[in-house]
Input
Amino acid sequence: MRTIEAHSLNRRDFLKTTGALVAGTMAVAGIAGCATEATETLPSTTPNEFWLPEAWDEEHDIVVVGFGAAGVSAGIAGMKAGADTVVLEVAPKELRGGNSGVCGGGWICPTDVQGYADFLYRLNLQRDDKQELLEFSQTLSGMVDWIEELGIDYMDTKRAGFNFYPKEFHEMAPTMNNSLKGVSETGMEHHAMADADGNQAMGGKYFYEPMAEIYEGMGGTVLYETRGRELVQNPQTKEVLGVRAEKADGSSIFIKARKGVVLACGGYEASPELTQEYIRACMDIAVTGSPFNRGDGVLMAQAAGARLHHMDCIEWQGYGARIEPDSEVNGRVGTSTNWHSEPAVIMVNKYGRRFFREDMRMGHTRQFPGVEFLGFADSTDTINDWAGAPAYVIFDQTRFAEGAGNFYGGKDKLAMGWFGQHELYQWSDDNSQELASGIIKKGETLEELAEAFGFVGVAEFAEEVARYNGFVDAGRDEDFGRDPEKMVKIETGPFYGIEVWPSLLNTQGGPKRSNATCRVVDYEGNEIPRLYSAGELGSQFGLVYHGSGNTTEAVMTGKVAAENAAALEPWDAA
Output
């Protein structure tokens, strides 16, 4: 392709024009503020140079957006292939890693390519193409070889794989149950990192940081606090030629990608607009994963003409309490733990009523057909209000005096989640810090506690606790079938509660990609030239998560994307 000389164009005009051609191609439906300002349709005789920036601030062969496991793997693979590679990361260095740095840390590798593809076909409710799943399985099957090539130590956990399909949902979701009935062979093996004692190291940072150190050791560059915002795309050929990014001060920089752009910037869980659109309208959600995953890759790829898929595939993490609601970064971030599984607590909604079986496993479950653990409020309340958001963890003085316990996984045991992995907050041993800060509220009586939370029904709350205590005495939960062995009476005042919100670990949806090349495709199935995606952004995983899959997908799709981009001729070659 000939070298294209940029017209003289100030950046404000450039952004307006590019917005009309790129972002205007396809805007997020129904979300105010996501569509870029429209301009007049340009005549066909307009020169095709006008959409380039006046000047590029930097030039590289490959530009990778995001520095989680997908981005770091892409960076390593790009450099190994001899390509000049740069990575853009919106977070500061001390908070790098995205969801890869705060996950559980396990990973899988298909050992039977066809068998794993068949397994995923069933987990995804037969809604994905079998050939695409086979290509995906083939891509992931190189995980062990790649990790060994990089010289990273790991351990075999002797676990064949597992899926998060709570047994409590069997009768509630017959389609799902029929799909998974009899599944025993997964076609994969499970691995993890080892600590100094040879035991499994819990936490994604043990996997992520060695890869980040490899990239840096190769001389790889990361532009921290640099947020990818817009793709520079040839409106005629649809080739993606670079990225407009924003620095921490809001200024724009233009980074030329001579060979390709790899979007590896995660999902949309920290975007109120996108979660409202695709997950739960009129519901606030506490993010357990990265607060920097604001759907930038979804919007950038969609504006370039990408087809979106799996936007409804999400990873709930139960309920999470907000720790620092006034923090600019952490305002929507919560800490998630097994509040509901504690024998000495119940969970109620704002009406003061229990509304689900508290000992039901909620981590990694999905919003799949037939299952809603958060119902709409009744008709006497505001339309589109959710009865279970927020919810309240209720316990008495006896449980409070026991200290943190499982409320926070123990003082040094929180492996997953943004706050735990980055050590941004330490729950006090005796709960006193949380009581003083207002995370835990106190009432001398149940009625006083209900008033402190502003429950719709104060007397009803006291009645509900009495009813639950009666179930404990009878050894049977007549309302929800909770295991009587996991029920302890709430009767010793003062009484306490913690406001919690539905907690979202990560989303899987985004631009659909070819599993063989990791190039993003449009709605006609055509690959968009020089545009790739990796990791959770456009994940192949569907409505049931099988455990430890996202890390492998991130690493291997990042690798494949960068290798394919590196093999291209530069678009500006003479």
